[in-house]
Amino acid sequence: MRVISLQTLYLSLIAKEIYFKAGNFTATAVTKTSLPRLFIIDLPAHILSIGLFVFAILAGFIHLRHRQIRRDVMLPFQPGTLAAAAAITANSNVSQLLGANLDEKALKEALRAKRFTMDKETGKVVMEQGRQSVWVPFSRMNSVRALLS
Fold first, then answer.
1. Total of domains in the chain
2. What is d(CA 24, CA 147) in angstroms, rounded to the nearest whole number?
C-alpha cells in the first residue's frame, strides 16, 4: 500500500512540474464548427452502390433457389449437433464397414471407391448401392436441374 501512495505522490509532483508552469502569456485558440473530413467522389460512389445492389439481388436469388433445393432434404435434428450425427448415421451400413481400431491408412482403404449419399425417404446416410435408388440432395446435377427447371 505504501508503494502505491509513493507512486501517486511522485506522479503528481512530476505532473505539477510539467503542466503547471508559472507564465505570463496569452494563448490563442481558434474554434471551427465543422471540418470536412470525409469526401466522396460521385462516379465511384454510384458505381459501387450499383454493384452492391446487383450483388444483393443476386444473393437473394441464390438464397431462394437454395431454399427450394433444400426443401426436399429431411433432417431429423438441428444440423451440426451430436444428436443429428447419431440420427443420420443410425442403422446404416457404414458402421459395419468401419472398425473401432482402424488407423488412417486402413480407414482410407476401407472407404476407397465408396460413395455416401442421403436416402430421400429417411434422411439417413447410406452407402450407394445403385444410382437409381438413391437421391443426392446437393449434387451438381440436381443443382443444374433445379436451375433449369
1. 1
2. 82
